[in-house]
Amino acid sequence: MTATHAGGPPRTRPEASVTAAGAKRSLGARLVEGLGGGLVRVFLVLVGLFWLVPTVGLLLASLRKPADMSSSGWWKVFTQPSQLTFESYRKLLENGDITHSLWNTVLITVPATLLVVGLGSLAGYAFAWMDFPGRDWWFLAVVGLLVVPVQVALIPIAELFGKLGLFGTVLGVILFHTGFGLPFAVFLLRNFFAEIPRELLEAARLDGAGELRLFARVVLPLGGPALASLGIFQFLWVWNDMLVALVFTKSGTQPITVALQTQVRQFGNNIDVLAPGAFISMVIPLAVFFAFQRQFVSGVMAGAVK
Q1: Which pLDDT band holds residue 305 (cuts at 50, 70, 90)?
Q2: Which of 65, 96, 166, 171 could make an S-S bridge to 161, C-beta 3.0–4.6 Å?
């Protein structure tokens, strides 16, 4: 339906425009819109199940005897559940190299994660809300460090650690992971802290809060999701690392990734130790991720919105 006015072309009423737009939509577009939600959910469920297949397969393989694993695949347990046994895990706990390397992994991962989160949050707050000479240039230098590959620094830092007596020690690996994790931590947290309303910080300063108290009482609680996301990223990266551990550790300080690789090299058919060791090495970071998944999603979504 149209309407006319003096001296001008006819105007189309809004109701008619909406009806015409709806009529122009194809049948396929309307079907996709109607079924999109259900299809997306089904697709995501299938992707999730497919993603879990290697984990389930490794778990079932670790619960089988070596003779059963060499004769058939792990899916055989669905028809012969009597094959399941905890004998491999008993042998794993009796293997001193594996248990010691697992403890080394904890000693490396936890401090490296806490140091990156703690130092990164302090530096991120300083770059976001404190004025000091060359602040922007220093931040650009930190951002530039993000593009430095780990492989470039392996030999120079190995020589430096050798002179300082840190090569082959757990402390050396912790310092390496901390140094390479800080640029991303500073970049992420600085951008997150910069979105905090200035009025909120000014109100806290008017109440007599100093910089340290302001950071601890206002900034850290508001930055909880970002800190959790950073902690998960750093924990997973350090826990699963093998390259740095191969270069900077030696016998007695090796993490679980290097210890399992050593088991393969020395005992090619030692599957009764490799399977449960690999599963434990994988399930611990998975448990950490699922334990903090809500904070992780909140941090990612907050960063995306901002």
Answers
A1: very low
A2: 166
Place of tokens 């492989």: 151
DSSP codes of every residue in 205-239: HHTT--HHHHIIIIIHHHTHHHHHHHHHHHHHHHH
Q: What is the distance, to the nearest Å, from the Cα of residue 25 to the centroid of all Cα atoms in its chain? A: 42
Are 138 and 127 within 8 A, CB to CB? yes
Q: Which two tokens stand for residue 64?
A: 């089988």
The whole-number pLDDT of residue 18 equals 45
Q: Which helix (H) or strand (E) holds 2?
A: strand 2-3
Residue 130's identity, in one-letter code, is M
Which structure tokens are listed for 113? 């994660």
Q: What is the pLDDT of residues 225-274, one digit of tens each?
A: 888 889 988 998 999 998 999 999 888 889 988 888 877 655 555 677 77
Q: Cβ–Cβ contacts within 10 Å for residue 55, how many?
A: 13
d(CA 57, CA 279): 10
Burial call 212-243: b when 16+ CB within 10 Å, e when fewer: eebbeebbeeebebbbbbbbbbbbbbbbebee
Report whether 200 contacts 134 (CB < 8 A).
Answer: no
Amino acid at 140: L
Among residues 198, 201, 206, the alpha carbon closest in space to that of 217 is found at 201
Give the C-alpha separation, 174 to 115, whole Å. 9
Bridge partner list, 203: none
At 225, phi and psi to the nearest 5?
Answer: -60, -40
Task: Indicate the pTM of the whole model.
Answer: 0.75
CA-CA-CA-CA dihedral for 174, 175, 178, 182, to nearest 10:
180
